[in-house]
Write a structure and sequence with these properties.
This protein is α+β, with helices and mostly antiparallel strands. It contains twelve helices and twelve strands. β4 and β5 form a beta hairpin.
Length: about 475
């Protein structure tokens, strides 16, 4: 009702104001009022003292109240009162005075009353128009929020303090396996996402909080899935309530675990390659000793020497199965800027803890290389961790990562301000004697890089160490335009 009144009255009010605010229109209306007063005075004179027409002066006063200020209304009231008593036949001053004062008060009050009514009506219309505008804005915001929530790929649910679903969007119904036409609304959340029910029970005792979590959920058909959820509790007139956003991360978890298995398999093959490489070296040395014993064999030890030869032969065959860095099943075009930004997200907190810094410079932010994304990240992490250990006792703790394109390759250089590499000749050999961990990090890293068709080496540097990872450039991405 207010909305209809506001929308209907507002145009009329604007037209009235437009008609009254202009100087020409004000003069025209004032002329009409004066003419009306003159006509009433003339009619009052023609009628004579027998019949008074003084009450008709109220009409020009009401018209004047629509555009004149209060002082002008009082002046017009005095003029009308003078005209009113001017045609009175009374010869007593007291009667003239009383009638004049009565007329002035009547005309002034009628004019001011009409002005107040008009002003109050305009204020009411302004208020209704403002309410209508605010209501329209609220409706627009509500519609946009409803469209956003309903079209969101993330599941969104709200719960009351009993753990019953108040509202859910389409993605939530799909995530929890609702049949077409069914919804989560009105159902208890405990069978589907028990952690949210526990949060409400816990929140009733501890107050409001907001956090993120990862928890298992259950679909309508009993299927289990893993969900990332962000939720917060809030107070309403119905008590404590909860709003939650959920995303099914089961596929991401499967991909991550499968990738971990592939990385573990690759690392295991490389470790096995290192072990077998050492075994083959030992077999070579034993073979030399065996040849010498065979030349000087004693008749009583022929069987023992032949048995030793058989063991050497078998061990050599096992060692001949040395595995090199196996080629990944498929290489992909990896944007170096993106993977180095992810690397900084991982390593920068550790560098900040030791008051260190990480610097990154790229000649071309669009450089893309052929590699396995996770394997390349493993190589970069190993180099940055080595640099982090190397600068621990240094007064200046910095890691500089530079990327430059050279011909058909891209070179990624990791330079630190550590103590440097005293002996780089055997740096990439497995099972380093002075290694702080296993002595396989650089060996595996270089094997991974070579499996991508690239290479890795250490360059001489003053005041630190510098490792270069060379990778083949990927073909430029095709534009859709």
């Amino acid at each position: 009702m207010l909305k209809d009144m506001g929308t209907a009255a507002a145009p009329a009010r604007f037209q009235l104001r437009k008609a009254l605010t202009g100087p020409l229109n004000r003069r025209l209306l004032l002329s009409v009022c004066l003419i009306a007063m003159g006509v009433i005075a003339l009619a009052d004179w023609r009628v004579g003292p027998e019949l008074s027409l003084g009450g008709l002066y109220i009409f020009p006063m009401l018209l004047a109240a629509t555009f004149l200020p209060p002082r002008a209304i009082v002046v017009m009231a005095v003029i009308c009162a003078v005209l009113r008593v001017g045609f009175d036949d009374s010869h007593m001053v007291a009667q003239y005075t009383i009638r004049f004062i009565t007329a002035v008060l009547t005309y002034v009050l009628s004019g001011l009353f009409a002005a107040a009514v008009i002003r109050n009506r305009e204020m009411a219309i302004d208020h209704v128009t403002e309410l209508t505008h605010e209501q329209r804005l609220r409706n627009e915001v509500q519609e946009r929020l409803e469209v956003f929530v309903d079209s969101s790929p993330a599941a969104i649910v709200t719960l009351d303090h009993y753990g019953t679903v108040i509202a859910s969007n389409r993605s939530a119904n799909v995530m929890f396996g609702m049949e077409p036409g069914q919804t989560l609304e009105g159902r208890a959340i405990r069978p589907y996402m028990p952690v949210l029910s526990e949060v409400l029970r816990f929140g009733n005792r501890t107050g409001f909080f907001r956090t993120a979590a990862q928890a298992p959920g259950r679909k309508e058909n009993g299927e289990i899935f893993l969900a990332d959820l962000w939720f917060s509790t809030y107070s309403s007139r119905h008590g404590l309530q909860l709003a939650a956003i959920l995303v099914d991360s089961s596929e991401e978890m499967r991909d991550r675990e499968q990738q971990n298995v592939r990385n573990l398999s690759t690392s295991s093959r490389l470790v096995a390659a290192a072990v077998l490489h050492e075994i083959r070296n030992i077999c070579s040395a034993i073979s030399v000793v065996y040849s010498n014993l065979k030349e000087r064999q004693e008749p009583c030890r022929i069987d023992e020497i032949q048995g030793l030869g058989t063991l050497i032969t078998g061990l050599g065959r096992v060692a001949s199965l040395e595995l090199q860095g196996a080629e990944p099943e498929s290489l992909e075009a990896v944007p170096l800027r993106q993977i180095l930004d992810e690397l900084r997200i991982i390593i920068e907190p550790n560098w900040h803890e030791i008051q260190g810094s990480v610097h990154l410079s790229l000649d071309d932010p669009a450089i893309r290389v052929l590699a396995d994304r996770y394997g390349l990240m493993q190589v970069f992490l190993n180099l940055s961790q080595n640099a982090h250990r190397a600068v621990q006792t240094r007064p200046r703790r910095e890691l500089s990562i530079g990327v430059a394109g050279m011909g058909g390759c891209a070179r990624v250089t990791f330079s630190d301000t550590g103590c440097g590499v005293p002996d780089s000749q055997h740096l990439f050999q497995p099972f380093q004697k002075n290694a702080k961990v296993t002595g396989l990090g650089l060996f595996i890293s270089r094997a991974l890089v070579r499996s991508f068709g690239g290479d890795m080496w250490c360059e001489p540097a003053s005041g630190g160490s510098s490792f270069v990872v060379e990778l083949a450039l990927a073909a430029p991405a095709k534009s859709n335009a």
